[in-house]
Every structure is written in structure tokens, then in C-alpha cells.
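Allow me, if you will, to draw on your knowledge of protein folds for a short while. I have a record of one protein: its chain in single-letter code and its fold written as C-alpha cells. Could you please explain, in whatever detail you think fit, how the C-alpha cells follow from the sequence? The record follows directly beneath this note:
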Amino acid sequence: MTKDSQMVWDDCLRTIKKNVSPQSFKTWFEPIKPVRLDAEVLTIQVPNKFFFEWLEEHYVQLLKKSIRQELGERGRLVYHIPENGAAPAGMQSAGKVNTRPSADKDSEPVPGSFDAEMIKNPFVIPGIKRIKVDPQLNPNYTFDNFIEGDCNRLARNAGLAIAKKPGGTAFNPLFIFGDVGLGKTHLAQAIGNDIVGRSDAKAVLYVSAEKFTNQIIQAIKNNSVNDFVNFYQMIDVLIIDDIQFLSGKQKTQEIFFHIFNQLHQNGKQIILTSDRAPKDLEGMEERLISRFKWGLSADLQAPDLETRMAILETKMEEEGVDIPSDVLEFICYNIKNNIRELEGVMVSLLAQSTLIRRDVDLELAKEVIRNFVTTINKEITVEFIQQLVAEHFSVPVDKLHHETRKRNIVIARQLSMYLAKKLTNKSLKSIGEQFGGRDHSTVIYSCKAVQDMMDTDIVFKDTVEEVEKKLKMSLNM
């Protein structure tokens, strides 16, 4: 059977997926689209120049391996990089496209105005005076204390590129989205602070969507909408936080649409944050959503354990506090999805220690964290074991119930059964039933298989001990 470009790329992805973390795969490979296949040359479309450069710097050998595995030793990749986010001919839209071969051929990366003098202050309407803009930035939000991990690497590196050349990258607008407490505001303001630190000639302004809306209401009441629009069109770097709050506000969206167009046409940088991706915004005009997609949409994920640990260690260093490693681990095992809560636990812990003059230890941490964790399971359940093991091995938890010969899933299932037998009071029959209706003999076999691997493989033994430690840390409140 003759393979087309999609089939070849799907086969490449299977190889790539085995060699990178799930988050890296989602961030750097899922957005790639195959365009065409010409003999031994596969052409793929990447979103922008930054994407191209990152792949060439970090994954060129893996790409080379996967493409030659599918197309032979002469197989190679060619990149399509759309201009202004347009798709190449034959894709969703017809646009002029930059094409570059892989760096395997020593190719070069694709190359991808208004003076900020005395300008109007948006926070004094009416009665506007010609004064320099206060950027409204929190100086504590910097790149130095925004810890990088797989969960935020794309957004952070795009932010660094923008800070060096605002309005001069493919990331305009930069649309940062993610759940509450994952650092969207921190990152957006870090970009602004970095730009201000590099040059005071740039007019940078941070404003929440709520404040922006209130300013428009006041401008309408005072018949000063033109002054309002003129001011915003003079900004070099506009940062609007929580853009989703413009939802349903038709007049505000209309005014923002004209401001956005003028800034973008003049090469000014726009940075937006939201709790959801552009495509998921409701009550927003389609023409705005379309413009939000022009640049780069970068999501912030919940940080993994190592990133959470690094965040707290950085926070402690800033406060000049030394906290035992077991306390640090306990906090990070129990607060998983919200950096704001993570820092809140640390603040509460330090306050408790200071006010009641107690040493910071595990018992104090358990008392404090009860205020942040709403439901605490005192008993380890089979379901919780399955969830944690599946997360550790990066497999869907429902796969533990299905028949499959994939080694990572088989090992995850066997380890889950082993831990369920060791840490719960469930019968072998009951445990088996919770793994797709398996019988007790399967549970016995799995437990023996895990024990045999632990006896012969020190790395696997460490893995089992690490997973068991996570379970106890998460539930031993």
C-alpha cells in the first residue's frame, strides 16, 4: 500500500511519542500538520518560526531518526512556515509560505511606530493630561521567579522572545490561556517588566479586562471615546488580563476590535490572557476570535511534581527560610493543580510557625494543608491507586481495565494490583473485578511478577517505592 503524507507522519509520531514526555509531545508535535510527500521528502507545516527553531535546536536528531525510519536513509523533512499564521496552499487557506529544509542540511532558520513620548494616561478620563504612561505592572512578576517546566515552556520561551523584540516576532498576539492559578498574570507581567527594563522608550500598559471595560463605560458617559481609543492606539505593548470577561459586552468588543487592528497593523505587541483557548470563548465576536488566533496561543498546564518543588524552593529562598525536604515533598504531593494554592500553603505554614512558635515539621504541614484540601481520603482505595499509577506511567487510567499487550500499560496494571493487595483490605477477587473483571489468579500472577521485577531490577524497585511514597504522602494526612 502506498503511503501518503499523513500516514508517514502518523508513523513518525509513534516513534517520537516513545522518546519524549507527554507534555512535550502535546506542545511540540501535535500542532504539526503534514502537507505533502514527494518521494523521500516529507513536507510538514509548523505554526511559526519559533516552533521551527525550537524543533531544530532540541529535536532534530529525533526527527531525523523517525523520518529515515519511514522513508529510508535519504529521507528528509522540509518545513512550511506560514506568514502571519496562514496555512500553505492546499490547506485551510491559501497563503504565501516560507519553506526551509531541516537543519540536518545546515539550513538557516526562517527570518520570520509610534514613539512613546509624553502620552495620555488611561486611568484619568476625562481630564486627560499628556504624561508618561504608568505601565501598571507588579515589579515582583519577573522571568527570574517564573519557574520553567514542561507545563509552561512554550509560553515562557515565547515571552522571552517577545521581550527582546516586542512586535517583531510571529507571536503577535500572544494568547496565554490556562486554569486559575497557573501563572498567566505572572508571565504576562514578566514580559512587560522585561521590556520596561530593557528600554524606557516603549510605552507598556497592563490592564485587566474588567478595568478596560469600566474605562470604556466612563469614556462613553463623558463623550471621550475618541480620546480613549487614541490613547490605546499609542501603546507599544498592550497587556490585557482575563480577556474572557469581554464576553457579551458588544460595545466594548467593538472598540477593542478597532484598537487591536490599529496596534497590530502598526507592529505593536499585544498580549492577552484567558482561562480558556480562543476557540472555546463564548459570547465573543468571531472577528475577534479570528484575530486572537493570528499569533501564538500557548497554554499553561498544571505543573508536575518537580516543577512544584522548584517553585516552592525558589519561594523559600526569597523568604530566607529553610524548610525540611519531607515537608516540601508533602506539600507538593497534596497541592497539584494550582500554583497560587501552593504558595498560599507556604505562606500559611510560615505564619503559623511564627505566630505560635512551632518548628516547621510534617505535623504542622498536615494541619495547615487541611485548610486547602477540601476532601481528604483517609483510606487508600483501588481507584486512587489506579489513578496515581496511571499518572506516573503517563497512560490513561481506563487502559488499566482493557486487554492490551503494550508493556507500559501491562506494568502499570500489574503494579496497581500489587499496591492494591499491599495497601488495601480488598480481597483478591474484589481487586480483580476493578481491573476489567479479572479473576483472583490474575492478581496473584501480577503481584508475583512485580515482586520478581523488584528483585532483579533496582530501577524498577525505586519506581515502586516512589509510587508507594506518593500514595502515602497524598493520603497520610
In short: The chain has four domains: 5-105, 126-300, 305-369, 382-475.
